[in-house]
Fold each of these.
Amino acid sequence: MMMRSIFGLLGVLLALLATGCAGPGGSSRVGIDQVPMYGGMDREAVPALKAGDEQFIAQASGAFGSREKASKAWADRGFRLYAQGDEKTAMARFNQAWLLDPKNPESFWGFGLILRDRGDLEGGRRMMRRAHSMGLREKQFLAAYAKMGEWEKMLGQ
């Protein structure tokens, strides 16, 4: 019983440590939900995160009928929040959309827009290219993707 409590506490501490990463210059902390694809961390290795993710996936996919439909709904929420200027919550929604369906190109489109706006042009381009390579061809995406190409030209890249 004591060992289980210790491992439970250790899991919570690891989850808390995993929720942030060093920002520019290493001086600021950014929540892991503010990094595309949760920064690539293995969320299944942290029991608290794994359980939370499983519960979220079950509830969202149950509400929308499938993980893919739920992912689309969460990406749509992300785009609405982004349009309203709430970049932080939008990034969290794009991460949740990706968690629901890692093959949803709209997640990568959202990641690309936000990274670009944060000044990470190369990261934004990578995400936009990924969305395009996954077959995303919506008019608004193609316009943003073309504009990204214009920025590449302006930067000489």
Amino acid sequence: MESNEIGPDLLERWALHYLGRYASSAENLRRVLTRRTRRRSAEAAALAAPLIDAVVARYREAGLLDDAAYAAARVQSLHRRGESMRAMRARLAAKGVSAADVANAVSGLWAAGAEPDLAAACAFARRRRLGPFRRAAADYARELGAFARAGFSRRVAEAVLACADAAAVEALARGELD
């Protein structure tokens, strides 16, 4: 039978195991470790809170946790996948990344060239087979709804849906068409 004692060694093992599998922000790692301790018992979670804070602080100092680098990498990944700027900000906020780190990461997309939301919408259309990527006739309003639910503005959605073919979408993503 396991004891409910949660010490620094166990927290360290849990933290390293999690970071070995997933990239994480400091706040997200704190939440993960808190959930793990709460599974043991509520008293153990209360007693482990200062130990968790110490582990997170030590990992920040050592460079294992860097919220700015995490945000930058996550923004790039989500952008390539076709996530809107609004959705990216929401995802990072949910992981506990500060608004300043999110703003710096998003500004890196703007520095790269064309409008990031437009390029992401093009990737979203390709992935979801909308607009010129659709296989059969589709309902225009339904496709606009899909873009809206993904966090894109109507202007961006209409620009992508107005493209005649995949080549036009690619040119739009690069900023060659307006």
Amino acid sequence: MGTTMRLLILGATGRTGRQLLAGALEQGHAVTALVRDRSRVDVQHPALTVREGAVTDPGAVEAAMQGQDAVLSALGSASPRELLGAELMTVSIRNVTAAMGHAGVRRIVLLSALGAGESAGFAPRSLRLVFRTAFRAIGRDKAASERILRESDLDWTVVYPPQLSDGPKTDACRHGVEMQVTGMSKVSRADTAHLMLTLLDDSASIRRSVSIAAQ
């Protein structure tokens, strides 16, 4: 395990976010979770602070960012309305990068999806097509949010998993910077969350994209 940190987790009530929350606490980090509804956080831990607020609210993000060392984002659209609007990531990451700049926080690991954004260059054709057709609006939103990060001076890493499953952590995955992925790979949210936590103090992944796939 690396150095313990004060972490702000975004999307902590989602299926991957819950894995991030559990993993971060298990590793001894002090965690702040910014959530829209604190009743959805079913974890109690002395190292966990739950703040209620929307990531689309700049004030809520600014307040939650104070005193943090790094940010882990597992944000994603959770409702049909958000899928149609498809601006959640763009608005949220704009708020997050601004708050990080004001608070002096430099490190962020962002969960995206293989086939979206810059990963189109090394993703399987089937996944690229998903974000050009049925999930075109989501793909545009993810790509726009990634551009905000890439154009910032922050120490960012974007993580690109393929299809996610709810299985346990297996450690039976491979990952690499802009790693070419072929076929219909599937990885667990637990393995993806573990990788995101591992990358926090991996200097080789700073300002790079990392993809993950099954062995």
Amino acid sequence: MIDYSDLRASRDGFGRGVVKAGLRDERVVVLSADLSESLKLEDFKRRFPNRFFEVGVAEQNLAGVAAGLALEGKIPFITSFASFSPSINWNQLRVSICYNKANVKIVSSHAGVTTGEDGATHQALEDIALTRVLPGMVVIAPADALEAEKATVEISKTKNPTYLRLSRAGFPQVTKGINFKIGRASVLKEGVDLTIIACGNMVFQCLKVVEELENSGVKAELINNHTVKPIDSKTILDSAVKTGLVFTVEEHQVSGGLGSAVSEVLSGERIPVYRIGVEDKFGTSGSALELLDFYGLSSNKIRQKIGSIIRYK
């Protein structure tokens, strides 16, 4: 059963996780593009004032400074909105960070349409595609605040450039008691009739879909694929072979993100893959829940899409 009493955004988990990372390793530093409150950095600033740097509204400089700090042995976390980083500073991520194998953690909040009333310019729907294509970049989209906290601590231990995708809106915590490991997907619900693979806020929506499908006699397997790159090919392939039908669900453009990554894994198999996401559109203004429904990403709309297909299976 889903616990609706604990609603938190994944950015809240990052705020707690980066403090834990800072306590664990004094090399951890944080850089902000004038968005420290939005990224929940107040506790880190209070505890480690000499390890926090306000760069200002200068995302390209943010990445360049972080690359220099990383090459000098620090573990920098750069923080902004996903609509600004990785888009405005993509070339710096490519050359200064990834080409140099600089150990920089790119942490971006307000991803997806659930940014809400801020509108299209602030609703990043292409960021997974932009980062997934960069050589050496790890890409993680936590399902909830609990997973974001664990992911933050774990990426502070690695030496890879990493993109951590966070949300603004609060949703139930669905990963309680579940371990997090980079590159290892979690099977949240076992099933035999079809496989649903989701990341980020869509994991909660898909849990509701799985419960509703089960009530109608359909046993769906749900995979929380928090690490989009490197992707857990084995877990995905094992599930796809077992069920013979795969749906991917993401709060991102339907092309270039999780659905594309899963399709690449299964390209050599004769298993149909249906991708559910934003269909080549920009965002718009509205509440988080209104926008999920408008773009076909609410649990009801996802279930309807799946239902229209499995009738013919």
